[in-house]
Every structure is written in structure tokens, then in C-alpha cells.
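G., the chain you wanted modeled:
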Amino acid sequence: METDTGHKLNPLYVLIVVVVLGGLAYLLIVFKINTPYQVITPDNYPEGAKISLYQGLPPGFPSDVILEDKELDYSGSVKSADGRTRTTVSYISDSTLSNLVEIYQTSLRANGWEVSVLASSPKMAIIKVLKGQKQVLISLAPLQDKVMLTFRYEN
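Predicted structure as C-alpha cells:
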């Protein structure tokens, strides 16, 4: 009696592998996260040029206002009848409210912004920052164990 030494793939195993690979591809496409791109600044950019590393940020977002490496929850603009554009950007942070207030006060002052904490409590905080003609209103509101940050500014 001869034994068959040739290898045959069991159709069930092939089907399982195809389904698993298809499922992984679907998950990668559906749950694509809006994260910053790595951008290498070429030498031919003028000195002081700033590059926004986030996709989906509306034009005119102040480049020296920091955002965490988080998916943007909302990003949009509304143009008023008088021609001004009011823009809102928000994301959800894992940090605490008090830690975020401290981070934004420190980093924005270091970047030359005039910082005013308009309200601060365990339930919310509102920070107003000014730099020249630019003004940004930052609202921080707890959501269970996270904090939603909302930035409002006009162009």
C-alpha cells in the first residue's frame, strides 16, 4: 500500500484563513484613526514655518495651541453674516481636568499667549487666551473618567 506524501490544503483551513484576513482588513479600514502624520520639515521651508500635523483641522487653527495625540471628536466652521468664520475643534482626553488646565496655562503662556482662567471647578473649566488679534476660548468638561476639550476661535 502506498501512502500519499503530497500535501493538500484542507478547504476548511483555507476558508478560516481567508475569513480572518478579511476581518482584519475590514477592522483596519473601519477604525482608521485620525492621528498626526509624521512630517519631516524640508530645509527649503522658510525659517519659522509651522506645519499642522493633524488631518481635519480647519484652516486658521492657531499652530502654537497644542493638541494631544488624540482623534478629533469634532472639527467644523460656521461663517456668520458679517463675514467672520467661527471655528470649533474638540477632542476627548484621558487626562484629568485639573492637569489639563495646568498644561494649557503653562504651555500657552510659554508660547506667548495671555491666559485668563474664566471659570474653574471640578465640573468644568473655561480658559480664554489672547495673542495679538487671535483669541481662543477653551472649554474643558469631564465625561466620566475622561475630559472633553473644545477650542473656539474666529478667523
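The radius of gyration is 24 Å.

Shout if anything looks off.
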